[in-house]
Amino acid sequence: MAADRASRSVTIIGTRIDRLAMGEFLERFERLVTRSAPSHIITANVDTVMEEHGDPSCARIIAGAELVVPDGVPLLWAARFLGTPLPQRLNGTDLMEKICALAAQRGFSVFLLGAEEGIAAQAASNLQRRFPGLHVSGAYAPYHGFENDARENEKICTMLREKKPDVLFLSLGLPKGIQWIDRHLADCGKIVAIEVGSSFMFLSGRMKRAPRWMQKNGLEWLWRLGLEPRRLWKRYLLNDLPFFYLLLKQKYSRSKPRQS
To answer: DSSP string spanning 160-207?
Structure first.
């Protein structure tokens, strides 16, 4: 199984990225839903790779995910640079829309967890208008710092067990979202969980996505930085910079001839 998974993925600075086009992803996703077991999908970008590189606990969580897909264009560039190209970008917001379209067709239910008060509910309402027949079993915005409150977490897990959604979208951020899934997924029922970053903000209409040309050319980070400079400047301009050095190091280590 490990060898088969390795043959269908690439490794970027220690992070496994699965080689999947959108159609293949949706096929795999549907199989995960219908097998009726808790599953975890990760949308990876440069931040994710750097979190895994610097935090062994995040590395364990990411390595154990059912699927890890490339959310950011820089990961496509990195894979091509390493000689192991990926089929396409699978952005969290795009995935959420495609999954909701599939859910409306197949009768799957979805639940939205995270973001500020009212945003998840508005995103859910907009999605139901776009995809008639989509069943949203609930939307809930926990308070800031809830992840450290055992009673609040038990309340959320109980809510999910009672509502029984097939798909759980989270908008808690990195690494909080994947850490919450790791700790609590087993207590939430037979759910496929996926952290989708700021997608609730975009789909609720509270924040505008970058123009398509910026998305295609890997400049969405610049658009986001312009919208949220105080929150994102350190992440984009400081924390992510070592990515490029580590990528060059990986490339050089692969191409350097071994000495006998």
So the answer is: HHHH--SEEEEE--TTHHHHHHHHHGGGS-S-EEEE-TTHHHHHHTSS
Gyration radius of the chain over CA positions = 18
**pLDDT-above-90 percentage for the chain:** 74
Does 214 reside within a domain?
A: yes
Q: CB of 76 within 8 A of CB of 104? A: no
The answer as to whether 255 is a domain residue is no
Please report which confidence band the pLDDT of residue 256 belongs to, taking 50, 70 and 90 as the band edges. low
**Mean pLDDT on 138-142:** 97
Q: What is the mean pLDDT of residues 167-181?
A: 95
Among 154, 163, 156, 172, residue whose Cα is nearest residue 190 = 163
- Does residue 191 fall inside a structural domain? yes
Quote the CA–CA distance of 146 and 130 in Å, as a whole number: 31
Residue-wise pLDDT for 218-248, tens only, equals 778 787 778 888 877 777 777 788 999 999 9
Residue range(s) defining the domain that contains residue 219: 2-248
Total-model pTM: 0.90
- The total number of structural domains in the chain stands at 1
Cα dihedral 130, 132, 136, 142, rounded to 10, equals 20
Tokens of 41: 């999908």
Is residue 260, in this structure, part of any structural domain at all?
no
Length of the chain: 260
Question: Judging by DSSP bridges, how do beta strands 109-114 and 135-140 pair with one another?
Answer: parallel
